[in-house]
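REQUEST
  id: r-88c1
  op: predict_structure
  target: CPBP family intramembrane metalloprotease
  payload:
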Amino acid sequence: MFYKISGYKGIIILCLMNLLLNYLVLYPLGLGQYIGPEHPYLFGVINLVIGLIMLAVTILYIRRVDRKTVASLGIKKGRKHLIYSLAAIAITIVLHLVYLKSLDEAGILKAYFNVHYFENAQIVPMLLVTGAGWFVNAFYEEMLRAYIVVKLKHWGPLLMFLTIGLISIAMSIFNGLDLVYSILIFIVSSAFLYVYLKSGSIIPAACAHFIYNFTLGHLFGSGAVAFLRVEGETTLWYGLAPFLLYVIILVVMAKLIYGDASVEHCLKKIDKSGQQAAGKSHSPML
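RESPONSE
  id: r-88c1
  status: 200
  body:
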């Protein structure tokens, strides 16, 4: 029998379920060796299954235990959301393309276009499968982030950003954490959170999250679906400049497109929208 769990237990339960599922995939099932750009189909299918399971569990929990609508988290369409999403996709690809080609020009690594890219009859289905895997996981993670915002909305912006950043670090524990990587996760998590708060919708943050992972994970690199082939490796410090520029661009675009309203005002607006969505869900059908 479902019942409402008060407080912050929902956050703990959903985060622990995510960690447990990732642990099962990586260790008892031993599927971690297939989660890489060399195996696009397996990567896409595994990530799609994981993402859909966690998405279904999260939606079921919100609907049946918290007795809230998914719409209360902010799944909204609109012209501004479309503009932001398309701009984030285009800028992310162009930014990293320019960065990698500049490293190629400097002789630090080799980056060149795969001129036979579309000669491979499997390239389109491989792109669709890997892209779907990345997007579903990005959407689920942004939905979870939005759920945490709803639960922590009375904490204040500073404490909320700090808490959600630390949760994001903890959720990446199986990726092999160190101090620098943890700081980078905290920064990008805060950027996605800021985009969500400014827009009031999961969609722009999910699109920005998706294209960043998809670009660096598959579109650029040495994998089977990479249209920009990259040979050689660089130190972490070479990647800091485009990473920080990417974060700054996300934040600046959010301010330009969604206005200069404070984070506190955005939180109140999200809370009000959530209450309206909850009210509609309890309204009788006409």
